[in-house]
Amino acid sequence: MDALSIISQEHSNMWRLATTLDQVASDMEAGAPLEAAFFEAALDYISQFVDRMHHPKEDDFLFRLLRMRSAEAADILDALEADHRQGPENLADLRAKLAAAAQGQLTAPELAVAIKRYTTGLKGHIKTEEKHVLPLARKVLLTQDWAEIDQAFRNHSDPVFGDQAKAEFRDLFHRIVSLAPDSVGLGAASVGNLHAAAAPAQPPVLLKVQGLESCYGRIKALKGIDLEVRKGETVALVGANGAGKTTFLRALSGVQPISGGSIHFDGDDISRLRSDKRMRRGICQSPEGRQVFGPLSIEDNLRLGAYTQPKHQVAGDMEKIFAMFPILKEKRNLPAGTLSGGQQQMLAIGRALMGRPSMLLLDEPSMGLAPLLVEEVFNVIKTLKAQGMTILLVEQNAFAALAIADRGYVLETGTVTLTGTGQELISNEQVRAAYLGM
Q1: What tens digit of pLDDT does each residue of 70-128 get?
Q2: Strands, sheet with 407-412, edge to edge from the N-terminal-most edge strand
């Protein structure tokens, strides 16, 4: 049933976008200016996503097989497929209203009403699928049905379901987030690029942790953790507050003393190595809470991330960060403390990347961000993963983290209680009940 997890994740993405459109529309009703470029980017994403990816999956596989297995599915599916057919026309009507508003022929509040009417329909469609269609699919579809559906979703060479199409949608979403007002996005005037290169195949173990223990006074925070990360892997570490996730990353970085066990990185024992030497070996961390240097400029923050690197490559690396996050280039001379939370998170990730990490440690990168920015953070992580970067991701948003992870570990009170592939953990009933709210 991997396909249902993918569909639900896509529903979450569309729901976040609809919520963001509602918020920007409400701002226009309150007197904010028309954000024409943002709305154009959002409608492009919906058009491409709906017409090329989401609806073909449902119509050609899920809905077709549901009609074969259940007589009660017909009425619901008839209404949903009618929505699918009507969708392009509704979107074209909204584009026409946006063009009229941009030319002064329609007021911003009138456009806001049309946008909210559209998003209400979109959210209602998603609710129907989540509450009725997906539960029915779990109940009536047979093993061979799921094999057919999942095979289609896993076909990486397919132009609709494959990696190239997914990369295109990441770039479209990146455009939306860049152009969105900084109350909900990054507030940039220009759009960067998220380009992915081919990832290496089945490389060796880069990080191996055995029996790791760490204490705060008499309180043992980590209790014999075993964990490994291969080169090019994205590994998620999930768990509740107080489980020891941040302590574990701090122990890997060398800023939290360990009281037992060992840490091997790229074949060498670094258990007693100072934190600065670990950073020089390629362990770079984007910390919880971002922790940018507020009084310093954005450019200086990025330069500090590259303090171990040869000076001749710093300018080129900084331009790569600016290409990913153009808002940082636009504000490069401003104090980092003047940035919004989402902009600071991009700066924190960029600062870590300036160290040219062999392994990137990300500690709660989506914490406290608006829904649209949460999705953009995971878009960035997906792009870095596709480039072959090794990532250890600590994240309370367990579903999103496990959905992009090759493997995952569940941490409870300083102990690893479960491990497996990301999809195995998403499907695990214990994990779904404890961390996914299912």
Answers
A1: 988 999 999 999 998 888 888 889 999 999 999 999 999 999 999 999 999 999 999 99
A2: 283-286, 359-363, 390-394, 234-238, 407-412, 415-421
How far lies 363's CA from each of 50, 227, 238, 264, in Å? 33, 17, 11, 20
pTM over cut 0.85? no
Ramachandran class of 380: left when φ > 0, alpha when ψ lies in -120 to 50, beta otherwise = alpha
pLDDT for the residue numbered 199: 45
Cα–Cα distance measured from residue 397 to residue 233, given in angstroms and rounded to the nearest whole number:
19
β-pair type (205-216, 219-230): antiparallel
Cα 148 to chain centroid distance, Å, stands at: 27
Residues in the chain: 438
**Exposure b/e, 70-103, CB count within 10 A at least 16 = b:** beebeebbeebeebbeebeebbeebeebbeebee
**Beta pairing, strands 260-265 & 268-269:** antiparallel
Tell me the pLDDT tens digit for each residue of 363-395.
999 988 888 888 888 989 999 998 899 999 998
pLDDT above 80 (res 291)? yes
Residue 120 has phi, psi (to 5 degrees) of: -65, -45
Say how many CA atoms lie within 13 Å of 207 toward its Cβ. Answer: 27
Average pLDDT over residues 327-333: 93
Q: Are 330 and 343 in contact (CB under 8 A)?
A: no
The rounded distance, in Å, linking the Cα atoms of 243 and 260 is: 18
State yes or no: pLDDT of 316 exceeds 70. Answer: yes
Element (H, E) at 238: strand 234-238
Amino acid sitting at position 4: L
CA gap 337, 177 in Å, rounded: 20
Domains defined along the chain, listed by start: 2-179 (1.20.120.520), 205-434 (3.40.50.300)
Q: Is the dihedral angle over the CA atoms 174, 175, 181, 184 positive or is it negative?
A: negative
* Phi, psi (degrees; rounded to nearest 5) at 221: -85, -35
